[in-house]
Amino acid sequence: MACASRLIVLLLATTTGAIAFSSSLSNHPSRISTKSPFKPSTILPANHNDNSPTKLSAIPSLPLEDLTTLTTALSTTASSLTTSPPSVQTAFTLATFLPQPLWLLLILLPKSPLTKSLFSTYVPITICSLLHLFIVVTSITQPSGTAPLAEFADVFDPSGNPQNAMMGMMKYPNFVTEEWSHVLTWDLFVGRWIWLDGLRRGVFTAHSVLLCNLIGPPGLLLHFGTCLVTGKGLPVDDVVEADVMEE
Q: How far is CA 112 from its chain centroid?
């Protein structure tokens, strides 16, 4: 009996509420709008008074001059992130193509007097290193720098996603140029070392130097393998060998 009474009361309350809501809509048709609900003219505040309807004020618009200034600033910032200064672009081209004839000498003419005269010194490596230094110094003097340090730090954050952070760094042209010349210079340094070891111990190195030029470290591993297969043994650094002999 108690349950039945509660059910009747609930039904009466629901019906009364529905009638009251319908009456409210009839008395205030402005509450119903076919316009976008996000426009100020159709949105009523929570403390709206039926006797004195109010409207939300529209968002104030910026003056045309301020809008132009803001657009120009955003455009300049975006441009600085997507382009490098002409000097860095030229350095990128030089860093890419300058070492290639040197690689050809190491691969095709390893015993040529020209190859020996060039690579018996550190001149080729020094030129590439100075080019890389120029790229670094020029980049860090730009407003955008080489890349944001905060993003660079994410590359070395083991708790995050270092690979994803490195991929994000590649959107900065100055950073790409710096890394590219960095890699090419070190590849040439290792390629020269392989060539020298081959000349000193009579090991064939053309295939190893070529692979070093293409994908770096595997070329060094191939040279080690060639040394073992030909019975020459693994190369020993002269400095290390001298230190061991002194002991």
A: 42
Report the C-alpha dihedral over residues 44, 49, 52, 54, rounded to 10 degrees.
-20
CA torsion 222-228-233-236 (nearest 10°) is 20
Of residues 187, 186, 155, 74, the one with CA closest to residue 147? 155
Rounded to whole angstroms, the Cα distance separating 98 from 192 reads 15
pLDDT tens-place string over residues 150-165: 898 999 999 999 999 9
Cβ burial, residue 17 (10 Å; 0-12/13-18/19+): exposed
Q: Determine which helix (DSSP H) or strand (DSSP E) holds 219, and give its type and residue range.
A: helix 217-229
Ramachandran bin of 202, using left for φ above 0, alpha for ψ from -120 to 50, beta for the remaining angles: left
Query: Is the pTM value of this prediction over 0.90?
Result: no
Kindly give, in sequence order, each residue whose CB lies less than 8 Å from that of residue 209, ignoring residues fewer than 6 positions away: 103, 106, 107, 110, 191, 194, 195, 219
Residue 143 burial class via C-beta count within 10 angstroms: exposed 0-12, middle 13-18, buried 19 and up: exposed
